[in-house]
């Protein structure tokens, strides 16, 4: 029972960060984007590939500053998805970001 309590205590901050990714407040979303590596590390490579990346892929309808931060974070995400052999899972969200009309997002 103590192990289950410790596991849920450790995952609580991750749940808060994931909730912040969905929050209406741009500053909270921006803060969560800058902590994506923490979320991915806690989820592990498989859940990052199967859950986090698809969620981020659907999140490209956001404020420019959030999208710029997201593109910067995703550029360093190879290790979090399982290494170079899984790098292809990052292509879809990166392609979507590259297709954004705003040059500041696209150029990042």
TrEMBL record:
UniProt keyword Repeat present: yes
Organism: Apiosordaria backusii
Transmembrane parts of this sequence: none
Signal peptide, first to last residue: none
HEAT repeats: 13-51
Domain of life the protein comes from: Eukaryota
MF (Gene Ontology): protein phosphatase regulator activity
Protein name, per record: Uncharacterized protein
């Amino acid at each position: 029972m103590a192990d289950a309590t410790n596991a849920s205590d450790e995952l609580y901050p991750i749940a808060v960060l994931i909730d912040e990714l969905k929050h209406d407040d741009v500053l909270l979303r921006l803060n969560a984007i800058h902590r994506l590596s923490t979320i991915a590390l806690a989820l592990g490579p498989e859940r990052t590939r199967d859950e986090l990346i698809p969620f981020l892929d659907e999140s490209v309808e956001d404020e420019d500053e959030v999208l710029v931060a997201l593109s910067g974070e995703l550029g360093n995400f190879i290790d979090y998805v399982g290494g170079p052999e899984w790098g292809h899972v990052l292509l879809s969200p990166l392609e979507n970001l590259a297709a954004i009309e705003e040059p500041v997002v696209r150029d990042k």
